[in-house]
Amino acid sequence: MSPQAKVSVIKCPDYQEERVEEALRQSVELIGGLKSVIKPGDKVLLKVNLLAPVEAHAAVTTHPSVVKATIKMVKEAGGIPLIADSPGFLYTAQNNRALRKSGIMEIAEAMEAEARQFESVENPFVKIDFPEGLWLKSLFYARLALEADCIISIPKLKTHGLTLFTGAVKNMFGAVAPKTRRAAHLLAKYEKFSGSVVDIYAFKKPDLAIMDAVVGMEGGGPRHGKPRNVGIILASYDCVSLDAVASKIIGFDPFDIYTTRLAHERGFGVGDIESIETVGENVEDVYIDFEKPPVRKTNIPTFAMKLFDRYLKIEPRLVEDKCSRCKICEESCPVESIKMSPYPVIDRDKCIQCFCCNEMCTEGAMEIKRNWLAKRVMG
């Protein structure tokens, strides 16, 4: 067993700051502490999840109390913390709005720590050739992340409409420019998109992952699902191991999560649950069966998928009563399959089922729907 393949699972019933700090300290100490990854004077990137400008109670973003406790610990270790992320496509020009709406900026200012969106600095993204990538041979990578001596990934525990689950590996998707994210989405297929996420993760792997799983999101995540109390904080030096354990806790087979499976197969971490040491709480004692996103199950046999594929329909559909005609779906579609007339109309021949329209819609008007056969085959 790799010494990195250790995941701590610590109970934390709510976001009361003292409880969060106690749980986070315990979780990090149980795997070996911060001294092995942070040296005095190190620039430490706290890579939070800032999908969109949403208040903390919605369970879309990393909770500010988790960020506050991490800032405090990083400073105690002698590190210089920087809190950063790049939100969804349409919010990159709205400098720091997601940070303020989530409550993270207020915490950072009170703690005298810098917080910003990656794109808010001069020359924000650097083009990097990456021949080792399977699907992305070059990346436009955040300069602030490249300059960091240490990276701590701090994801929110959520389901995801395209990748089933989003955790510490997927969290690094926010460290690349929108043009790289669009290139990944254009790969369309679940396996290829997941492979591109692993490419991004592999380029600069975080030194530590701390997961906010006090309140997670089930169902139609990563934005339009339902908050669900889980009551734990997890930590690991291995993001792949952390994701495997976290996904197991909420009812997934870890290898049904392709970001976990592919990262494990490519040697970027340990995703085999039998090869991971868990400390703190037993997985069985904190298990909670999440409502899964309405997407295709990966455990359907390949021959069956080939047979049903042309008839299974899992696609975004407009709920007109919810639509404000804001054009966000049209602007966020990487293949320009959506046109306003006067409500959004989707060209099904162009649509690649990347669900960016669902993820970016502020009203939840673009819902992911399954036809009757998809419901019957997938359960």
Summarize the structure in short.
Helices cover 30% and strands 23% of the residues. It has 379 residues and is an alpha/beta fold. The longest helix is centred in the first third of the chain and has 15 residues, at 17-31.
What's the SSE blueprint?
Layout: E1 6-11, H1 17-31, E2 43-48, H2 64-76, E3 80-85, H3 97-102, H4 104-110, E4 114-117, E5 125-129, E6 138-142, H5 143-146, E7 150-154, E8 156-160, E9 164-166, H6 178-185, H7 190-203, E10 208-218, E11 226-236, H8 239-249, H9 258-265, E12 277-280, H10 283-286, H11 302-308, E13 314-318, H12 328-332, E14 338-340, E15 344-346, H13 356-360, E16 366-370, H14 372-378
Parallel strand pairs: 1-12, 2-3, 2-7, 3-4, 7-10, 8-10
Antiparallel strand pairs: 1-11, 5-6, 8-9, 10-11, 13-16, 14-15
What's the count of strands? 16
Strand content: 15-25%
Poorly predicted runs: none
Task: Provide the gyration radius in Å.
Answer: 20 Å
Please explain how this structure is put together.
- The chain is α/β, with parallel strands linked by helices and 379 residues long.
- The protein folds into 2 domains: 6-286, 3-Layer(aba) Sandwich (Rossmann fold), CATH 3.40.50.11440; 302-378, Alpha-Beta Plaits (2-Layer Sandwich).
- The protein is 30% helix and 23% strand.
- It is globular.
